[in-house]
Specification:
By secondary structure, the chain is α+β, with helices and mostly antiparallel strands. Helix content is 27%, strand content 15%. Strand 8 and strand 9 form a beta hairpin. It is rod-shaped, with a radius of gyration of 62 Å. About 12% of the residues have low confidence.
């Protein structure tokens, strides 16, 4: 019996084949025609622009300002590769393309300030101004300390009501008093009638010593008369420009008069 020996055949070692092998082979062969691979350019607007570089030989023969891109044979690509190419957007731009944008004009509007109100001019007569000054003076004087002797003394209580009334020569009413007009008016409120002048009032009363004098008595000096307020105080209508007020006894040698 004859025996024949058959040697087994073995495949040589090869690189593994995967679904991407065909795509890689086709893409490598196709892109070789273009000279180099596709470059991805990032536009300033955020759009990914895919541009294919042009070989130097093709660019030299191209006519016009913009070089024409060579055609690419996609017949050898697999179905999956064709799908990728068909769905991928292709954007072309001339080499001298320039990006530009317009800056919108901005106009600042500054609001105009509101006009200040015009001052209101008032016309005040001299008499009204004088009355205002006199009222202020009266208020200031009325706020001054009043002697304790006023309380419970009928004459001084009446006299204190007119603190701040201005001196008026010949005046006999609360609108304005002179010295004797004031004393006569105060006593008249208590039912006692006195003469009009200071000398006549002195003659109508009784002269007493300073030690005997009581609040409510009168103080006389040549040409002037006032009401004694106790201690070193008196109330009177002094002179033009002044008002009725409590003040210190200024007479050097006064005469005290008691009425009734």
């Amino acid at each position: 019996m004859t025996a024949s020996a058959v040697r087994a055949r073995h495949r040589s070692a090869r690189r593994p084949v995967t679904p991407l092998t065909d795509l890689a082979t086709a893409a490598t062969g196709t892109l070789a025609l273009a000279g180099r691979r596709t470059a991805v350019v990032a536009a300033t607007t955020g759009l990914m622009v895919s541009a294919v570089a042009v070989p130097a030989a093709s660019a030299a023969t191209a006519s016009g300002d913009q070089a024409a891109l060579p055609s690419v044979d996609t017949a050898a690509l697999t179905a999956s590769a064709k799908t990728v190419l068909e769905t991928a957007p292709v954007v072309t731009a001339p080499a001298d393309a320039a990006w530009s944008f317009e800056t919108p004009a901005v106009t600042a509007v500054v609001p105009e300030p509101e006009p200040e109100p015009e001052p209101v001019r008032t016309t005040t007569s001299r008499s009204a101004q004088r009355a205002t000054v006199e009222t202020a003076a009266a208020t200031e004087v009325a706020a001054a300390a009043v002697p304790q002797s006023v309380a419970g003394n009928a004459v001084l209580e009446v006299a204190a009501r007119y603190v701040g009334v201005p001196y008026v020569s010949g005046g006999t009413t609360p609108a304005g008093f002179d010295c004797s007009g004031f004393v006569s008016y105060v006593y008249a409120q208590l039912g006692i009638s006195l003469p009009r002048t200071s000398s006549a009032i002195k003659a109508a009363g009784t002269v007493i010593s300073a030690s005997e004098a009581q609040p409510g008595d009168l103080i006389w000096s040549p040409g002037h008369i006032s009401i004694y307020a106790g201690g070193d105080q008196q109330i009177d209508s002094p002179r033009p420009g002044k008002t009725i007020q409590f003040r210190s006894i200024w007479q050097s040698n006064p005469t005290f008069i008691r009425i009734g």
